[in-house]
Amino acid sequence: MNWLSIFRFEFRYRRNRPATYLYFAILLIISFCAVTTDLIDSLSGGAVKENGTRPVATLSLILYLTIGVLITSAIMGVAVVRDFEHRTDALFFTKPIRRWEYLTGRYLGAMTILILTLTAIPMGMMIGEWMPWRDADRLLPFRAATYWQPYLTLIIPNAIIVGSIFFAVGALSRKMLVVFTQGMVFLMLYLVSGTLMAQIDRRETAALFDIFGLRALSYTTQYWSIAQQNNQLITLTDTLLYNRLIWLGVALLVMGVTYSFFSYEHSAGPAGKRRKAAEQTALGAAALRRPLPRVSRQFGTLSWLASLRHQTQFYAKVVLNDLPFLALSIGGLGMFLFLALDDAGAWYGSRTLPTTYVMLGKMNIFTGLFLFILMVLYVGDLIWKERDVRISQISDALPVPNWVSLLSKYLGLALAFFLTLTVAIGLGVLMQVIKGGASLIEWSVYATELYVGALLNLLIFMLLGFFVHVLVNNKFAGHAIVILFFVVLGLMAYLGVEHRLLLFDDASLGQYSDMNGFGHNVTPFSWSTVYWAAFGVLLFAGAVVLSVRGSEELLKLRLRIGRHQLTRPLLTVVLAMLIVFLSSGSYIYYNTNVLHDYQNSKKNEAEQARYETTLKKFATLPQPRITDINVNVELYPDVRDFSAKGYYWLKNKTTQPIRQIHLQTYPADEMQVKQLSLSRPGRFDDRYVHDFDYHIYQLDQPLQPGDSLQLNFDLLYHTSGFKNGRENVDIVQNGTFFTNQYFPNIGYDEGYELGADDKRKDNGLKPKERMRAQNDPVGLRQSVMGDDADEVRFAMTIGTTPDQVAIAPGYLKKEWLGKGTDGKPRRFFSYQMDAPMANFYSVVSAKYVVKKENYKGVNLEIYYHPGHTRNLDRMMKAMRTSLDYYQQNYGPYQHRQLRIMEFPRYRGYAQSFANTIPFGEDMGFVANIDDAKDIDMPFFVTAHETAHQWWGHQVTEADVKGGAMLSESLAEYSALMVMKQQYPKERMQEFLGYELDYYLSGRRGESKKEQPLSQTEHQSYIHYNKGAHVLYALQDQIGEAKLNQALRTYRDKWNVSRVAQTGIYPTAADLTAEIRAVTPDSLRGLIDDWVNAITLYELKTDRITVKPVGKQYDVTMTISAEKVRADSLGNESARPLNEWMWVGVYAPKAKGSPTEKLLYYQRHRITKPKQQLTVRVDQKPDRAGIDPLNLLIDRHPRDNVKTIE
């Protein structure tokens, strides 16, 4: 017998196994479904087509990672283990066959089958592309290479790498459970690589660290344009190639180790275990010689309960002492420790204080993934425990009912998980203490999240797992079905199934907030948990009835025998659980479908389309604009209600009479319109109220140009029960924050229209532009804040509970205590703005502590949650520094106060209203800043939002393309300039590097078309990241003073007083004209390149040589440079290069310094694709290169600077 005969045997064995065809079918069907459902949209979307090269390659790897790895373990891991499980190893090993022949034959036979099975991935996707229901507009012309190249370059290497390691682990351990455990090691490597991806300077390392290559693919394509994602085939180059070579080398090494240590010897185990077994045998023999004690037999409930207790303890010990359980638990907890210690965040590398909810967030991988995989493995392992060790015939003959056996295994595993979670809590607390957060420990939050949230979810899924394993009566099939159930459950939303009554154990405590705790999430979580727990117990009862006992394994026989298991107590439990299941389900349905109008995503999109098709005809009707607002708001935080009673003054600012007033009230189940009335005679047309909350008031006499009328309204927002899906997070028990969107708007609201072209097409609508053209006359006459007002006079009174502070824009005129209509104590605050302001305001209420300071006549206030004091001084400093810089360069601040108010972390942003800035809990209040190495994000965000008091409030842009450049780009740039006062230029490179990275990454996710900065259309990666980067680079080229002069001129020309006179709002063209006016002729081309076009650079330092010259050093650099223009899809064309660019030389990094110091930093004219430069420095250099501070939009900025060898 040689290797070829073993290969043929293995190949034929696998070829004839039904399981092989089942694996192929599963992969084929899932691959098919992945491209024919909405799942593919999450990887493509908009201009990136569904069969683009990058989406297909990414999906191929995801399918292998989620399904293919399981199949790999089943085929490769069992190749050698099978001989030991079937006790045929002795037959093989007594033959004259060499070790390498045995291993090679088994390996190649299994690997050949695996590679053929994995062809189902490209085949399933290709078949899916040809389906007639696919949207042709979302597809490129068919190209087979799009599917087969990822298979050849990504899937097959993965099969070899992962399959070799599974094969080696199976051959050396001879246990399938250890093989499954190895799969978790792969997962850990993948997850670790994911945490490293958060920071720019560690991404390449993360890409190399990922065994599956998905991170390497993401890293290689991170800055790809739309055109590249559609057409450029994935090739093994650069980081992706190195990743594959490294892991192929690891696989080869593992196979070498396997060959070296694999033994033909048939043994009972390691020497220690054999010695222990011998000792136990001797003890057993001695025990047999002792007289047996007299026992009294007892059968009944008490004996069964005693047996249940003992068996529960036994199975808990079995699980806790099992090496794979310990290994996976330690690995998962080790993963948590790694994340807890490496606390760099994904947002500009910022870090967070070690609060309890932060620790729990880092623990999610352990509780939400590792424990669930352990649950999947050990439910099956415990079900099969007696049969695996061949004592099932003995145990089945014992006078113990099925429920005792099953329930003890269930409770034993539950106890093991409880103890594991207890260890997790201890480690979480330990990490908090180590990281200086002892005062932040919240034991109740740990207990609620882990013992209530995580453990209950595990227990319910365990009930399902026990039922599946008993039903199918095949360990591996049971594992596969449970895992497949998880996969399908994750895909349900893509299949249109979104109701919590249909999503198994879809219960979550939601996001915890220091301000609001678990808040409103507790009630829906409790009811969903009761509902699915009752269903789980019913399944468990089914498992009891169908349990295998003796040799009757056929389902038909078990059903016949199981009737005898339906005892009265079991039937009582079933009946009780059925009542609980139906009653809790009915209550959930009552809340989600009766108290609220449940609609899935598709139905919501259809309603949006119907809104447009029905009401769009009213969009061009002339309407009055709001000039005055006076509202009384009564907040009831405990029940999450509010009422609003007040009035608007509406003025006809058009040149024609207005015959109808159109009003849009907030379209939500909770909103009740108790009164709408106008001060002029007329009547309401309520045809559209029921469907769209759209009211039309027909005036008896038209409202003439210049005339005004009063709109009175009385609203009640009443929270009743709970919804299906995410609850409203605007009105909460502590930390309410909502805007004027809840109050009536004037006219048709385009914000309710569908935006995505594919969704519009699905609903019979034509594509639409995201924003109006820059010269659109309608857009020029309305601000980005909305078309129903220009500036307004504003007053608001807010009533809230006595322990809360309520805040609105304006100045506090009066505060008092009183009683509400229900006689309960209330606290009232009356605010009024002293000058007209934008029609953009907020209502905030929480249990606040306040920090106050008067700075140069401006009252600075921060309203914060007790205990969140860490960054108050940073935020105060940012307000002071910002006011100084902005007033000096842009003009005076228009208010006498500036306030920041913290709100819960459900929404991660800050927002600037007139003299008022609501600020997210985790946007700065819990940041953990190390000044030596971190970007001060609380400082930066405060500076950004303060800048909006100029850019957005003093000057408000037109609602046309490019508008966000005038607010968000200028605010981001202004904040950068304030940061520049605080940091040396070397530190600014870190921030600019993140801005550049977010812009380049954002291009990859573009849904329609990339626009130049001056034409940005709600594209945050352009108006935030590129905008700040471009404006910072412009001030570097033309001078900070000149650019600020242009901004001040723009502000003076286009402030709100001019808009009030002309009715025309500014556009990006107006700002660009002012910048062009202060720019030298030689540099004006930069404005066209950077602002009005999409211009990219490719700069690289190819080679550096250093030559000592006395006490100095000549540094000679060979530079590559390229400049291109890109269209909206990323297609590029070369442009002539003739620009001044910075060249820098760095000194070695000093001990304790966060960055190196620049020894040389001067501009050089770059005109050629290849250019050599020589500069002289006074100190031995460490690194050198072109554009070291990343001022230019360079597609690969990491190769700008090169370390000197």
From TrEMBL:
<feature type="transmembrane region" description="Helical">
    <location>
        <begin position="450"/>
        <end position="472"/>
    </location>
</feature>
<dbReference type="InterPro" id="IPR027268">
    <property type="entry name" value="Peptidase_M4/M1_CTD_sf"/>
</dbReference>
<dbReference type="GO" id="GO:0016020">
    <property type="term" value="C:membrane"/>
</dbReference>
<dbReference type="InterPro" id="IPR050344">
    <property type="entry name" value="Peptidase_M1_aminopeptidases"/>
</dbReference>
<feature type="transmembrane region" description="Helical">
    <location>
        <begin position="479"/>
        <end position="497"/>
    </location>
</feature>
<feature type="transmembrane region" description="Helical">
    <location>
        <begin position="318"/>
        <end position="341"/>
    </location>
</feature>
<dbReference type="InterPro" id="IPR014782">
    <property type="entry name" value="Peptidase_M1_dom"/>
</dbReference>
<feature type="transmembrane region" description="Helical">
    <location>
        <begin position="176"/>
        <end position="200"/>
    </location>
</feature>
<feature type="transmembrane region" description="Helical">
    <location>
        <begin position="21"/>
        <end position="40"/>
    </location>
</feature>
<dbReference type="GO" id="GO:0005737">
    <property type="term" value="C:cytoplasm"/>
</dbReference>
<feature type="transmembrane region" description="Helical">
    <location>
        <begin position="410"/>
        <end position="430"/>
    </location>
</feature>
<dbReference type="GO" id="GO:0005615">
    <property type="term" value="C:extracellular space"/>
</dbReference>
<dbReference type="GO" id="GO:0070006">
    <property type="term" value="F:metalloaminopeptidase activity"/>
</dbReference>
<feature type="domain" description="Peptidase M1 membrane alanine aminopeptidase">
    <location>
        <begin position="876"/>
        <end position="1064"/>
    </location>
</feature>
<feature type="transmembrane region" description="Helical">
    <location>
        <begin position="148"/>
        <end position="169"/>
    </location>
</feature>
<feature type="transmembrane region" description="Helical">
    <location>
        <begin position="245"/>
        <end position="264"/>
    </location>
</feature>
<keyword id="KW-0472">Membrane</keyword>
<dbReference type="GO" id="GO:0043171">
    <property type="term" value="P:peptide catabolic process"/>
</dbReference>
<feature type="transmembrane region" description="Helical">
    <location>
        <begin position="361"/>
        <end position="384"/>
    </location>
</feature>
<feature type="transmembrane region" description="Helical">
    <location>
        <begin position="60"/>
        <end position="81"/>
    </location>
</feature>
<dbReference type="GO" id="GO:0008270">
    <property type="term" value="F:zinc ion binding"/>
</dbReference>
<feature type="transmembrane region" description="Helical">
    <location>
        <begin position="530"/>
        <end position="548"/>
    </location>
</feature>
<feature type="transmembrane region" description="Helical">
    <location>
        <begin position="107"/>
        <end position="128"/>
    </location>
</feature>
<dbReference type="GO" id="GO:0042277">
    <property type="term" value="F:peptide binding"/>
</dbReference>
<keyword id="KW-0812">Transmembrane</keyword>
<keyword id="KW-1133">Transmembrane helix</keyword>
<protein>
    <submittedName>
        <fullName>ABC-type transport system involved in multi-copper enzyme maturation permease subunit</fullName>
    </submittedName>
</protein>
<feature type="transmembrane region" description="Helical">
    <location>
        <begin position="569"/>
        <end position="590"/>
    </location>
</feature>
<dbReference type="Pfam" id="PF01433">
    <property type="entry name" value="Peptidase_M1"/>
</dbReference>
